[in-house]
Recover the amino acids of this structure.
């Protein structure tokens, strides 16, 4: 049984449809349009319910987890996918543009994760061994940066860190936590200046559509499966390419057995940069 946030369109819709096709019961969360995906799943013989709550709201997310458990008896997978964009260069960005993206994208990952983790901790204490999985959604903007997306990139970088920390904390309850960094055709990429034409579907239907959001869904489904033991990792996925990211790593350094001087730093540090 899986929850997919931001599941009405784009990546979330693709994930939800694949989960349902694989036999999973799905709760589709989105502020609008979730009922359409539910109808699509049911028309294909699957089981799904819609939940229109705000994932960044504490009580709405608590009810989201409860909706899944009440509807289908258990929760096995949480796919955190909901996100918005408010692109602007830093010198022009408003407080609202910063706050709304951090609220939806970062807090909207943490709050469902927090309530799902509470549920799974209790189930573990009750003796259940569910092998739950969380799949978060980071972005290249957060992993390597992208001008004009300081708010979005900061949230997505924090999601990668949240993934690593949650994986360490929740391992004791049998929970695995990973993240994907997808490149796909979504409302967000289509709205990004310069990307609209690049991500358009090929005119030749026989060509592989590298930007189809459904390309990322098999990775999400594998990470969600009980047979997968991977945790604490971030994967970039684009078209038919999957890359495991290593995160921040030490790239060389300098050391002294005494406090550095400013002049000493100026002389030595550039040698390793």
């Amino acid at each position: 049984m899986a929850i997919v946030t931001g599941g009405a369109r784009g990546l979330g819709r693709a994930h939800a449809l694949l989960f349902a096709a694989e036999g999973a019961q799905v709760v589709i969360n989105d502020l609008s349009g979730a009922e359409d995906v539910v109808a699509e799943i049911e028309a294909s013989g699957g089981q799904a319910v819609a939940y229109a709550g705000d994932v960044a709201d504490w009580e709405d997310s608590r009810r989201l987890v409860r909706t899944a458990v009440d509807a289908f008896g258990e929760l096995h997978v949480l796919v955190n996918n909901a996100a918005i964009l408010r692109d602007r260069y830093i010198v022009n960005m408003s407080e609202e543009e910063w706050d709304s993206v951090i609220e939806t994208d970062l807090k909207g990952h943490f709050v469902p994760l927090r309530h799902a983790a509470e549920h799974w901790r209790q189930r573990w204490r009750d003796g259940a061994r569910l092998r739950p999985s969380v799949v978060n959604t980071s972005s290249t903007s957060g992993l390597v940066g992208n001008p004009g997306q300081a708010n979005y990139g900061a949230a997505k970088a924090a999601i990668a860190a949240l993934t690593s920390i949650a994986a360490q904390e929740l391992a004791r309850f049998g929970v695995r936590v990973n993240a994907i960094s997808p490149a796909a055709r979504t409302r967000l990429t289509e709205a990004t200046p310069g990307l609209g034409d690049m991500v358009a579907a090929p005119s030749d239907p026989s060509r592989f559509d590298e930007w189809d959001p459904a390309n990322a869904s098999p990775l999400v489904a594998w990470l969600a499966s009980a047979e997968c033991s991977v945790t604490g990792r971030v994967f970039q996925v684009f078209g038919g390419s999957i890359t495991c990211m290593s995160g921040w790593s030490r790239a060389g350094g300098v050391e002294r057995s005494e406090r550095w001087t400013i002049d000493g730093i100026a002389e030595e540090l550039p040698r390793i940069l």
